[in-house]
Amino acid sequence: MAEKFGISHLTVRKAFTILEEEGLLLRAQGKGTFVRTPKASIDMQRLEGFSGSIRQPGISIVNRVLYSGLRPAKFKYSRIFDIPPEEEVFECIRLRLSEDCPLAIEYNVAPKRYFPDIADYDYSMYSLREVYEKNGLNIVEEQQMLEIVKIYNPQADLLNLEDGADVFMLSALSYDARKRVIEWTKIYDNTNRIVFYASTI
Asked: Residues in the chain with pLDDT < 70?
């Protein structure tokens, strides 16, 4: 850049330092200097799922399905959904990206009893909320918990983070109008790409 613009190396280094301090550049040891993509802001008060909670220009979400299918509820999900352990639940794991940059890994589980056709959709295209609505159910309440945890491979690698990096983990139980838990969610969020906010009245 110094050669291209006919300026000193010191001036380029100073400019890079200022841009890094302003959050526009990211320096990675041994890898180089990169332009930061805009952070995605998530409104924790919106009951619209991951994509629906992001409300800002220039952020579009692409879903890469890592796994989707039916499995027995077993002990954990039988307690969460108040169903027999042998009953089937649907599990979906997706990598959320914006401009090929990983934003989050999202795990969703829902009881098949409420959504008989839930395993028939391509969740790189459909949202789970759309499938819930098709089956006549809507989420009207969520209990959310946000904490900082360490993430390890393979999840860390999927988010382009170091093994053992600190990330936000958002977990949630979603309820319908009859107070039944119809979805369990866990999301590992790339702290370099996402900001959470909530407003109070």
From this structure: 23, 28-31, 34-59, 191-201
| 73 CB-near residues (< 8 Å, 6+ apart) | 81, 83, 84, 85, 86, 87, 88, 89, 111
Give this prediction's pTM.
Answer: 0.72
Same domain (yes/no): 30, 105: no
Residues 3 and 49 in one domain: no
Total number of domains in the chain? 2
